[in-house]
UniProtKB/TrEMBL annotation, chains A, B, C, D, E, F:
Binding-site positions, Ca(2+): D57
Xref: CDD domains: Mn_catalase (cd01051)
Record's protein name: Catalase
Matches recorded under InterPro entries: Ferritin-like, Ferritin-like_SF, Mn_catalase, Mn_catalase_dom
Alphabetical list of Pfam families matching this protein: Mn_catalase
Region (Disordered): 250-295
Record key words, sorted: Calcium, Manganese, Metal-binding
UniProt cofactor(s): Ca(2+); Mn(2+)
Residues annotated as binding Mn(2+) 1: E35, H69, E149, H182
Cofactor binding: number and manner: Binds 1 Ca(2+) ion per subunit.
Ligand binding (Mn(2+) 2): E66
Recorded GO MF terms: metal ion binding
Family named by the database record: Belongs to the manganese catalase family.
Length: 295, 295, 295, 295, 295, 295
């Protein structure tokens, strides 16, 4: 169950409202790197948490913090929209030199909300809850959370660079700090659970003897010139301590797939039904011409 | 530029076709944990890669591998649909004991594709490319990739458990092994770049002096009883070596937000325009009643 | 800012887990009539509220309640999934008589979440935040909220009828009661603001003298037989007390629209460019044949 | 079955084409407050109507009117695009002073349609038919329709304010008038059916004795300071005449939820499986620290 | 402007209601091959039509027919839902032998609509209006329409095969006939405009001298074995009479792309900024290892 | 299985980067007329291909080419973003005369990708894989492919006209040429299979004796004035040689639909349940008034 106090977690001030920055801030509300996503992600991870209770508590607790971040950003959007032009005439009158503002706005800020935030990204695309990752696997979830906070902090840093409004910079300096902590927090869970040597591969409950081990630590090359991009991923011990990285040219281990012909009553063309083949093509398939035009 | 040889990276066999397993496999094609997502994610990360060329090459190379995984899974879906019922009559005739099959299918496998795969998830929801994370920040991208491969391997393991078809188990054992490697691969990049102490917080190019440092390593408590869920995230050195974790009760640092009243010509109700307040409410706001019903 | 206590607003018990009912319950989480929608709708309405502060407070307060409803329902989904089959073999073994269960499940409950809720509807379609109505007009918002709670209570009543699990019926009896109140609550705001005579038409701040008054209280007939469906909407005083309902046959007041021909460099076919007309067609347009085939 | 006459319901004139206003008008076509939505909503409500036939007839009749509104607006978009720049060069040449136009356009108006309307909103987001509410409950549907027409009229009023083109203002004055009527129309159905005292709570066919009556007319307070926002919704008779409003502090009536640990073969981490608890935590759970940092 | 008569274009009878067939029929309403799509596609093509008026008239006329097809199918869905189980108990009682029905239904037919159609496909995915193709190029549109009617007729034929209800077969025989005609109709426009020799390539208003003619009639081979799939597309005159088909091995005509390094203030990692290269890599790039593992 | 060489199929040069043209180019990547769509469409058609193997090979081969087109366009987007403004201050400083650039950008190019492409269209709407048509019917698929390439070439031509950058024009001249060929290629398959006389109606495997032949070659008129738009589609032999076009006034062949009343326990209003009718209305239905207002 949840409670509120109607106050902001951190002050939100805007000295010089900027409707285009209001649009940019929307990315931090309804973008895939934004706060609606992490709020719902942490809460759904917590609500569906199976296993040690401490992680449920930690997740729901931090998910609760994130609701307040949406509140801060929604307030920031509304404040950046104070005084925004409502008509084409105002727009040109207000800002004839540096270019019209209205064309760069999320027009729904005028037309749909009366100068307030929407649960959309900076291009007006509504948040889609398929971005809420809650896999039932705590290590997978922690990495999903690190990814969310890493892209989230990159976003906040870019918004910080985009504005020179001191109030907005102050608010963003707080959100950036919280993203710093949240990156740490999720990695701390991995460490607490034994770190990568214990936690990898994810899920670690599947017996690795059942996977095709020959390929578990090989970096596959798919370059036509058979060159392989080298790096830490092609040499040395694997990070879970269970194997050794190696480069490997990828070769087809399977043949050409053969599907049954369509059923006569299945809505295909008659020519498909009659022309279908139940056996693999011969090696010298006549429909494949010789190379006519090699440079 | 890209090339193909028309063959499968690994053999795909189905001994006993199962149209409901065909539907389940769709999650690995068009689900958020699936192969279309990682294919596009690695390719877009590579195509937009700025900085050392080796990462571009590595990303595009692995993205190219993933195209072939979609091919394998699409073949597996089609083979699981061989002999699927096309009509209500067949359905009941085929499977009168264990329950009808047709109701559990993705009906588009019959109606839209003529017994072949779609770029959709197991519930028939089409893949949405907003899941392609390519942030321009290599560390953020690597963690997004780990998350994709961690949820991807969890999915593959669950599919492995769902079926007892030996061909399908064999194919999945290969995909599971590749997911093992790919989890490693992206973490190996982080290690190559100096590991978490160098790479965190992401982005590491933003001067931390500009963030609100007081809050950068604090785990905030939002429990109404002021209890804080304790763990590695509330004590010890932070994982970037730059701070020390601490628990902190979250308190509102900002006040109640105050927005300007609506403009008279802005499409609000007259009562809002007239009732709007340009100044903050007094502490003893009469519209907030005293608690009438405390237990 | 927000807080939690980790407890449920109302007890959630499941006596006999039912994975298909788990899927049905998802509609109340991520469906358009569900709790994510009202949670976000009330919070965004509150966060963007302009005008009397009491409505902001009331909206955020009730939005906070709704977060807990998602929590209850997510718990109910997880409890209905306890013991759900994870494989085709289990499925048939468990439920060979009444029909297989697995085909009727949201397979993501197995494959993506490890037996927990998702922010999706009963067909697995993720919640889309375009359903968050927050118009900046309080009367429009109140009616949007009534609609949400009316469809929400219809949904809860249908779920109540679908199950005979006493725990589920008990939980739903609570949610139904809350929907009863919430329908009332939003209509009470309309009443407090003066009721329909004051509040209609919405927005009431637009001068009605500028609308085409001739058509403001007319019910238009579009039946080819010129019959008009009669009712309260065709007779008596209008509900805002400002007009009188009347039936009216709809007649075209405008002519046939004429657009300029395509630009030669605009990507149309040459035949369109050359065949375009800048003047309206003559009344006896030769391309319109006489009726050749009247019954 | 449906018919047309190729003419516009009301004249559509544009004196000074404005490609950015064309983009704004799209909200009234494909936005959630727009005409595609109401057209489909009224038609689907009518086509699925069960119960008295007069409502079916009325709904289909008005849905038919709305098709013509999309036609009018599509014409208005096309006329506002006459003469729009097709190239970066033209754009700058045309409008070097007031700011470039092309950046503010829906670029699909150039690239995808050849200067014509799309079924999208003002940000280019395509209409999504999940917004078609047709609940099978006539009162719920009527309120959904009022909400659609209230937000629709707010939108039309804002578009009216945005332009000073006399032709566009004239067209919008007609659409605003129709929205006035349609708000009335749906409320007239509620009145005809007995008004709120008869119709509430929706659905009124569910026996209220089965809901948790203690909470049916209580406004819950979720403020941490136990203040409750007071208003009509906390005092006086309820609007259905069946209860009395009261404020009530919300208290958790349920405990902390407890889910079973993950199955060993369910794709979780081993640590979750082993650390899971089948019994509720003790009150003095050691993982919850004492409050370390109370202000 | 539009009119209706409240009657069905063709009789819709259901002898034995089948809720799973109701779900299947949804594909013909809200699927990408369905009637909402063609209705909106033809109307938007007509409303945005530039050039000869006769095509506008023809398109709007046929779009008007399609509205009635949605009406027929919505009626068919509702009739197939008569008597559908509303509860788990009913479901098992009704259909204990052939498998439970409820699991195979679109549960929104029970929970959201009260046994009526939705604007969704057979998996419950709502119609998305991005499928409305109206390109402003009449030949492109005609081919888009042929594609819609070809997939539409394949769908109708598959539905016809799925059911043995005589009423449903009769209705579908009508819709199949209409799809036959509509395929013809759009191709007839191409013929009237001069056929493929005149109309291709689309758009035919672009001077072909400005395209890279060397590649305009070449079928590119991307097989790693340099075999090219041969057919009509590799030999003979092209269908527009302007060229001659030829097979051609695709070779990279461009080099490796080089992007500037990230800006220091752009949110990348420091290592990217420092490691970036402004010049192309040398041919013997040391990060590309020699092939270590050639079979 | 797939391979790459890291090179571009055709050179991509940008002489004068233009961030708004970068946004426009996105339509060719992630728009419905773009390259992600055709890449996935041809690959899924190939992977699910049943019938003659040569079509599978041809489809996969061309799908492989399209991956490289996405690569070219993603490179073009990144190059057009070189030097783009990252802040409001830069923006105004850079381009004070011709209007600000930042407002016209896809802000995700700054905020989400660090100046690189996204899999989105020109308005920032992510690609949705429901656009991947792979019907299992080769003729339907070929027409879907022609439609994709026709709208795709119209798009490329419009982009060509929008820019005057010589590098971009050169790249587009190549893509336009490839679209020319691909339009031909799919139509060549139809010709190879016997042309329209053999292939129509699609699917040609359904016995036309089972369709309602009376209506298979009739163009229906839905004009209220019973005028029918005449053209090739109303006279002469049908294009499949199996019938003769004729105009026909559309008349309702079915009556008014009658649905059962709602079930008492189905969540409708009581008034619907009681007022429902199980028999058709009398011809002189009293709820339909006489025409009161005929002009």
């Amino acid at each position: 169950m949840f409670y509120t106090d109607g106050k902001l977690q951190y002050p939100v001030r805007v000295e010089k409202p900027n409707p285009i920055f209001a649009r940019a801030l929307q990315q931090a509300i309804g973008g895939v790197e934004g706060e609606i996503r992490v709020m719902m992600q942490y809460l759904f991870q917590g609500w569906g948490s199976r296993g040690p209770k401490k992680y449920r508590d930690m997740l729901i607790n931090t998910g609760t913090e994130e609701i307040g971040h949406i509140e801060m950003l929604s307030t920031a959007v509304a404040l950046n929209l104070e005084g925004a032009p409502l008509s084409m005439q105002e727009d040109v009158a207000n800002d004839g030199i540096a270019g019209a503002v209205l064309g760069g706005m999320n027009l729904r800020h005028i037309l749909s909300t009366g100068l307030a935030a929407t649960p959309e990204n900076c291009n007006g695309v509504p948040f889609n809850a398929s971005h809420v990752y809650a896999s039932g696997n705590i290590a997978a979830d922690m990495y999903a959370n690190v990814a969310a906070e890493a892209t989230g902090r990159a976003l906040a840093v870019r918004l910080y660079g985009m504005t020179d409004d001191p109030g907005m910079k102050d608010m963003l300096s707080f959100l950036i700090a919280r993203d710093t902590m949240h990156q740490q927090q999720w990695l701390a869970v991995i460490e607490e659970l034994g770190g990568n040597t214990e936690q990898l591969p994810i899920p670690n409950s599947f017996p690795q003897s059942e996977e095709a081990n020959r390929f578990s630590y090989a970096y596959f090359g798919h370059r036509i010139d058979k060159q392989i991009p080298m790096g830490r991923w092609t040499e040395g011990a694997s990070l879970d301590g269970k194997g050794k990285f190696e480069p490997m040219i990828s070769e087809p281990l399977g043949g050409e797939p053969v599907l049954a012909p369509p059923r006569p009553d299945g809505g295909a063309q008659t020519e498909q039904v009659q022309g279908g083949m139940a056996v693999p093509p011969a090696a010298n398939d006549p429909s494949l011409g010789g190379a006519p035009n090699v440079a």
